[in-house]
Amino acid sequence: MLRGFYTAASGMLAQQRQQEALSNNLANSTTPGYKADQSSMRAFPELLMQKMGGKEIPTQSGGLTLPVNKDIGGMNTGVYVQEEIPDFAQGDIRETGILSDMALINGNIPDESGALFFTVQNENGEQRYTRNGNFTVDGQGFLTTHAGNYVLDQNGARIQTGGMDFNVTSDGILEAGGQATPLGLTYTNDVNQMVKEGGNLFRFDGGEGEAVQNARTTGDVTFSVQQNALERSNVDASKTMVDMMNSYRLFETNQKVLKAYDQSMDKAVNEIARVR
């Protein structure tokens, strides 16, 4: 009976984490370039149940008992959320009319798990990656995100625009003050190595010898950059609401099962096992 407690409780915990991920997706449904998290659930390792017993074999000396194990069947002990994986599908493109807004549009991506990113610098001076092209220009004329992270060029340097009077070509070249600066556009062939850090930024967490690459010099990768536009979040708000309702119902079902086990345990302890 205690196994039933654990199974129902694990189901409730898994649905709680699922609900948190879906709520976060819905809250970011209007965040430019946001990539929805998808929860991956997995059952705990299956156990093989066996019945232990013995078999008596008659002998001249009186008999011999041999241990015998009989397979009863498998038993699962619950479910858990193994990981949350971002969905890197391209979001819709929306025109904004703001010069500092840029949308990175996928062209040919040869790898199914490949993705393109803008390169930015966080407050610690480390490179991070984002699909959010909702940029602005700070008081010193540098191109930044609205959170204050510097947008980097292809050489990893900050981009000086001198103001809001600049142009961005479709191949990602920023033209300002007679200077042409290629935006830092990077490519990875394995998005599973990209870890969310908050603020719509990703950190590359690949193994030794792996790295994100210059998107302009990587094989058959093609892309375009659209100025005065933003890539919208790829969250489907309607589907997310439906998934949240399903998750809530599953949580409620496991809750009822847990309550039923609790009532059975109460009866077993306080009525059946009562000493008279």
Automatic annotation (TrEMBL):
<comment type="similarity">
    <text>Belongs to the flagella basal body rod proteins family.</text>
</comment>
<dbReference type="InterPro" id="IPR053967">
    <property type="entry name" value="LlgE_F_G-like_D1"/>
</dbReference>
<dbReference type="Pfam" id="PF06429">
    <property type="entry name" value="Flg_bbr_C"/>
</dbReference>
<dbReference type="InterPro" id="IPR001444">
    <property type="entry name" value="Flag_bb_rod_N"/>
</dbReference>
<protein>
    <submittedName>
        <fullName>Flagellar hook-basal body protein</fullName>
    </submittedName>
</protein>
<dbReference type="InterPro" id="IPR037925">
    <property type="entry name" value="FlgE/F/G-like"/>
</dbReference>
<keyword id="KW-0969">Cilium</keyword>
<dbReference type="InterPro" id="IPR010930">
    <property type="entry name" value="Flg_bb/hook_C_dom"/>
</dbReference>
<keyword id="KW-0282">Flagellum</keyword>
<feature type="domain" description="Flagellar basal body rod protein N-terminal">
    <location>
        <begin position="5"/>
        <end position="35"/>
    </location>
</feature>
<keyword id="KW-0975">Bacterial flagellum</keyword>
<feature type="domain" description="Flagellar basal-body/hook protein C-terminal">
    <location>
        <begin position="226"/>
        <end position="270"/>
    </location>
</feature>
<keyword id="KW-0966">Cell projection</keyword>
<feature type="domain" description="Flagellar hook protein FlgE/F/G-like D1">
    <location>
        <begin position="114"/>
        <end position="175"/>
    </location>
</feature>
<dbReference type="Pfam" id="PF22692">
    <property type="entry name" value="LlgE_F_G_D1"/>
</dbReference>
<dbReference type="InterPro" id="IPR020013">
    <property type="entry name" value="Flagellar_FlgE/F/G"/>
</dbReference>
<dbReference type="Pfam" id="PF00460">
    <property type="entry name" value="Flg_bb_rod"/>
</dbReference>
